[in-house]
Design goal:
Blueprint lengths: L10 H10 L4 E6 L6 E6 L1 H4 L23
Antiparallel strand pairs: 1-2
Length: about 70
């Protein structure tokens, strides 16, 4: 919302940015509380230092025992 902050990319986005290099553009929108500003960064992998951060998540599903449908 302000004019500073970190950038998060998914693994797929990071891999595509690495693959496409100068044909990949990252658009950062900031200053959302006032007049928004867009910054376009071509080849962000070479211009920004990204650090891998692994996040483990827990997925919860709910199941029933087999039911007979009528």
């Amino acid at each position: 919302r302000t004019d500073y902050g970190s950038i998060r990319m998914t693994q797929n986005e990071f891999e595509k940015a690495t693959e496409y290099k100068n044909d990949y553009a990252l658009v950062v929108v900031c200053n959302l509380n006032d007049i928004p500003k867009m910054s376009v960064i071509f080849n962000p992998i070479d211009k920004i230092n990204f650090t891998e951060k692994a996040i483990n998540t827990k997925q919860i599903n709910y199941h029933t025992s087999p039911l007979k449908w009528q």
